[in-house]
Amino acid sequence: MARKKRRLEPVAVAETETKPKTRYKDEFQTNVGAKVEEFGKKLEGQGRNILYGLGALAVLGVLIWIFYAWSSRSNAAAQAALGKAIETAQSRVSETSPPAGTPGRTFKTEKERAEAAIAEFQSVIDNHGGSAGEKAKYFIAVNKMYVDRAAAVSELEGLAKGSDEVGKLSKFALAQAYANDNKLDQAAALYSELNGMTDPIVAKESIGVALADIYEKQGKKQEAVNVLFDLVKAASDAKDLDGKAVPLSSTATEAREKLTQLDPEKAKELPQQPADFDPNSLF
Hints:
Layout: H1 27-43, H2 48-51, H3 54-70, H4 76-89, E1 92-93, E2 106-107, H5 110-127, H6 130-143, H7 149-159, H8 165-180, H9 184-195, H10 204-217, H11 221-237, H12 250-262, H13 264-267
Parallel strand pairs: 1-2
Helix pairs in contact: 1-3, 1-4, 3-6, 3-8, 4-5, 4-6, 5-6, 6-7, 6-8, 7-8, 8-9, 9-10, 10-11, 11-12
């Protein structure tokens, strides 16, 4: 398992457990929301590659959840401004100019993109406030990882004290920052707190895999095994509306494979996947 510090890049999240339903329908949602959702679909099934990209998890993947979960609580102008800032935060980064007519903005560096996004998110706070402003504070903190990491961590620490959606998302982003800084005890404490929540916002499977990884780095093999077993057991026991077993997600499948490596005998206690099931067929 790689131990080097991973490069931060702008999440969505960890894969989501269910596809959110559209609650609001207007021109903004049709145009901006569709782009965010399309980006999210591209991230589905990427497992640990997404999990460990702090920006990706905190800015891109989680965008999808935030947009749909909070859209009905913000006025149209605030949503439009926030959506525009989100588009900037996920703009392409390339040293070469895109072909003429290519939609969207292009930045030469991630730092340049982050600075532009931060300015737009700050404008949301200054001009709209409310729930949109609270979301913008979170996005500013995460994007600031490219500009001033110490300040970003400090802002996330403040936001993580809350118990609302922003607080939970900030806890997860902060846990990743701590993990990348090798502050394993602090990271484990946050992941454990989120793992014990009924509704942590971020997918419980992603939290469990991250927590198990921290435990393994700390030399706490049994704790890692227990977390992975509980995660895969819950996923294996899940049923759809017709009472049929739900196939394991890519993250749960990865967790099962890791459990098998750490404790083959414990892994044998889990229900077996159907012999003809191909997890790649889901993605």
